[in-house]
TrEMBL record:
It comes from Lactobacillus equicursoris 66c. This is homocysteine desulfhydrase. GO terms for molecular function: homocysteine desulfhydrase activity; methionine gamma-lyase activity; pyridoxal phosphate binding; transferase activity. GO terms for cellular component: cytoplasm. One of its GO terms (biological process) is transsulfuration. It comes from the Bacteria. It is an enzyme of class 4 (lyase). PROSITE patterns: CYS_MET_METAB_PP. It catalyses: L-homocysteine + H2O = 2-oxobutanoate + hydrogen sulfide + NH4(+) + H(+); L-methionine + H2O = methanethiol + 2-oxobutanoate + NH4(+).
Amino acid sequence: MSQEEKKQDAKDQLAFATIAAEAGSIKDGANPVSQPIYLSACYRHPSLDQAINFDRLKGFTYSRVEAPNRKVAEETIAKMEEGYQAFAVASGMAAVQLVLSVLKSGDEVVSLDDLYGGDFRYFRHLESHFGIAFKQWNGQKVEDLVSLLTDKTKIVWLETPSNPTMKELDIKKIADAVHNFNEKILVAVDNTFYTPYYQKPLTLGADVVIHSATKYLGGHNDILGGLVVVNDPDLANTYFQYTITVGDTMSNFDSWLLTRSLKTLPIRMDRHTASAQKIAKFLETANHVEKVLYPGKAGMISFYLDSEAEVERVLNSVKVITFAESLGGAESLITIPYYQTHDDVEAEQRVRLGITTKLLRLSVGLEGPDDLIADLKQALGD
C-alpha cells in the first residue's frame, strides 16, 4: 500500500464501533445481512483459464488457502488494529508459532520475562530443537532492553498488560529504541488483554500484533483461535506462505463465530471495564486480600490473598464465578496461575515475578457486578 493509499485509508477510517457492527455484513449470494457459514472445503473453477490465472485475493479455491468466513474475520481484525493484513489460525499458540516461524538457527529473541506460560514452553522447544536463543528483559528500563540486543536479534516479544502481574509497557518508546538499534528487528506485541478497543500496537510502532482470539475477541468461551496482524506486505506474504504450508488456519465455522463476537466487542469491553473497576475497588479493602493488581481498564484483575488456605477456600467456594482456566468471556473465571496458566514457567522465575501460590487471577465477565462482589464476599468469608 502506497503512502497516498494509507493517507486515504486513514481519512476514510470508520469508527471502531462501526467496523465492529458491520463485520460480516456483506453482499453475498442471496444478499444476507449476516454472512452465512461456508462449510465447504473447496470451490468451483468456472474455467481452465480462471484456474491457471487464479488470484486468491479475488476468489476461493481451497479452504486451507483462503475461505470466505476466515477472510471476513481477518479483514475485520486488520481494520480494528489498523494493520495491513491479518491471519486467523487455530489457537493462540498457533499464532505464537506463526510469528516465530521467521526464525532460523542462530537467531536471537528478547522477550519480556512476564508472559503467558505457554510462550516460555514454546521458547524452550525452539531453543533445544533449533538452536534459537531467548533472552529475558524485566520490563523496567528500556536501555536495559537495548543492551540485550545484538546483530543476531530478530524479534522483541512483549505482552502488555502482562499475564498475570499486569505490567504495562510503553510500546512506542520500546519500538523506537529497538528500531533505532536495528530497524529490521520485529517488535511483536501480545494484545490479548486490551484488544484493539483499548490499544493498537501497530500505530505505536510495533511490527506484529498477536491475539489469543479464544479470549476477549471470541468473548463467549466457545472457540479456540489465534490472530496475527502485520503492517508490512513482505512479512504478510511470508506468514501467508507459512500458514498455507502447515495448514493451521482457522475453520470457517470458528471464523464465523469470531466475526459474530467481534460485532459486540466495544459493548463487551465497556462492560468488562465498568464491572472490573467496581470489583477491584471492593477487593482493595476486602478481608484476606493483601494486594490488588489492576491496570484500570479491561476485565483482568490479579490479587494476593494472605494464605494458601484462603486461596483454597476461595477457589472451592465461589458459586457465580467459575474456577476455570481461561479469560475474556461472558462468564467470570478465576484461576491460580502458579499451578495452571504458568505451570510451564520455571519455579524460580514464577516466585521472582510474584507468581506465587497466593496469587489469583480473575477474569471479570458480563454478570451483574454486585452479584460477583457478593460471591467474592461469601468466598472470602466476609
